[in-house]
């Protein structure tokens, strides 16, 4: 009997400690979804579905030939991201994954539904695999990476994992 009381007290202590460490969680009703579209015009747009500092809403990736010297080094086209009405310059990586993303945009719109995950990122399935060159990295707010070869992740916090950097 004494052993059962000690075991119950121990389990309750563990449950209390784990609930205190959980931090902020997102209920399924609070999930913020976003849709990413990749197309061949000039801008990448992410329009917020709610006013919020976190990247959410509809997003479009576009390419445009603009003939600058720097762009020639990365495939003669550039992609620009817009969040709401604000254009955000992205320093796109020079790798096969970004090249494949540009090729997808040249073929027309690609829609990617994105959801918040872990309180520090938005994740969306691309619908196909892109070339991977995963490296252990620590991300920061604003980083765009490829996860598992088929998901785009946009960070608004930090995380350490093995990713292919996109921008």
Automatic annotation (TrEMBL):
One family from Pfam that matches here is Cyclophil_like2
Q: Where is this region: Disordered?
A: 40-68
Regions of biased composition (Acidic residues) lie at 44-57
**Keyword Glycosyltransferase set for record:** no
Residue stretches making up the Cyclophilin-like domain: 81-167
UniProt signal peptide = 1-22
Which terms are listed as keywords in the entry?
Answer: Signal
Protein name according to UniProt: Cyclophilin-like domain-containing protein
Taxonomic path = Bacteria, Bacillati, Bacillota, Clostridia, Lachnospirales
